[in-house]
């Protein structure tokens, strides 16, 4: 079946849904998208959208978190329940959409002993995680299998996936803890994206957010689930990967354009975060 979306001054992009299976609180669906801009449909379920097609330029945003990138297979976007956004693919793209019920996340949060059984996930665009990838690969195999595996196998995958998401991608905020506001997050994200080629400082970002440096470092980690430095280096590496895949600059040039001190600096961080070197990205 297809789900057309119409936009002014654009052709009609369509989503085509292929094989799909549901195992209680967990479901997976094959999706093919033609090039175009899609509004993010707001759903109660949490979604993990895995990309299967290599080197597709994609411009995504979810609740103020997003960026332009050239995606690699098994990059994924995490869309919490109730969140909306916009996705624009600049080439045909195959994906797998994995949906998890709020009840599954809540029961997992209780089992993990999270404060108040908190089961809030933070939006994430262009994420990578080896365990999440392993679970989704298993789900893809299940979609392609002539007969589904037993429910106990699906339940084990659901538990593994929900546990990993809460451990690595949970929003640390609760009603009793202050976090950055959505406008503050947008201003910080936009400023970082616009200045990745230069030297970013905590003083600059604290001014953008309108708060002190100690306040920024505490609230940023609480809101984004990582330190300011870790976030900036992740964005530098992702930008560098996109430029390398575009093939318009050398590794040394890309390093300078993304704020790294030199080529070896880029290589060290790319291997740490992506598990590959710049040369391997070029060969891909």
Describe this structure in words.
This protein is of the alpha+beta class. It folds into two domains: 2-169, Sandwich (Jelly Rolls); 182-283, Arc Repressor Mutant, subunit A (Orthogonal Bundle), CATH 1.10.10.60. Helix content is 43%, strand content 23%. It contains ten helices and eleven strands. The strands form two sheets. The chain has a seven-stranded antiparallel beta sheet. Strands 4-9-6-7 form a four-stranded antiparallel beta sheet. A hairpin with a 2-residue loop joins β6 (56-62) and β7. α1 crosses α3 and α7 packs across α9.
Measured distance between first and last alpha carbons = 33 Å
The mean pLDDT is 85
Number of domains: 2
Shape: globular
Count of distinct strands: 11
- State the name of the first-level CATH class of the largest domain: Mainly Beta
Rounded to an integer in angstroms, the radius of gyration calculated over CA atoms is 19 Å
The parts where pLDDT drops under 50 for at least 5 residues are 1-10
Tell me what the CATH architecture of the largest domain is: Sandwich
Looking at CATH, the homologous superfamily of the largest domain is: Jelly Rolls
The CATH topology label of the largest domain is Jelly Rolls
Instruction: Please trace the helix and strand order, writing H or E for each element.
Output: EEEEEEEEEEHEHHHHHHHHH
Structural class given helices, strands, pairing? Answer: alpha+beta
What is the topology, as strand order, of the major beta sheet?
1-2-3-10-5-8-11
What fraction, in percent, of the residue positions are helical? Answer: 40-55%
Strand content: 15-25%
**Alpha plus pi helix count:** 10
Largest sheet: 7 strands, antiparallel
């Amino acid at each position: 079946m297809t789900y057309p979306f119409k936009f002014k001054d654009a052709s009609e992009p369509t989503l085509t849904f292929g094989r799909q299976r549901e195992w209680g609180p967990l479901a997976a669906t094959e999706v093919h998208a033609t090039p175009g801009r899609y509004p993010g449909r707001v759903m109660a379920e949490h979604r993990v959208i895995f990309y299967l097609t290599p080197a597709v330029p994609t411009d995504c945003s979810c609740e103020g978190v997003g960026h332009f990138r050239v995606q690699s297979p098994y990059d994924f976007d995490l869309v919490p329940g109730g969140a909306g956004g916009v996705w624009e693919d600049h080439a045909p793209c195959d994906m797998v959409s994995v949906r998890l019920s709020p009840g599954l996340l809540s029961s997992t949060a209780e089992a993990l002993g999270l404060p108040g059984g908190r089961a809030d996930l933070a939006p994430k665009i262009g994420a990578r995680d080896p365990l999440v990838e392993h679970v989704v690969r298993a789900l893809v195999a299940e979609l392609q299998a002539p007969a589904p595996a037993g429910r106990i196998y699906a339940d084990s995958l659901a538990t593994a996936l929900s546990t990993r998401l809460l451990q690595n991608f949970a929003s640390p905020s609760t009603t009793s803890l202050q976090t950055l506001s959505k406008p503050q997050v947008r201003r910080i994200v936009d400023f970082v994206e616009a200045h990745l080629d230069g030297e970013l400082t905590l003083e600059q970002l604290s001014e953008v957010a309108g708060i002190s440096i100690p306040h920024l470092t505490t609230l940023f980690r609480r809101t984004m689930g990582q330190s300011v430095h870790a976030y900036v280096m992740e964005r530098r590496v992702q930008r560098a990967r996109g430029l390398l895949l575009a093939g318009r600059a050398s590794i040394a040039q890309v390093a300078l354009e993304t704020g790294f001190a030199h080529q070896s600096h880029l290589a060290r961080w790319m291997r740490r975060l992506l598990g590959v070197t710049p040369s391997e990205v070029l060969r891909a």
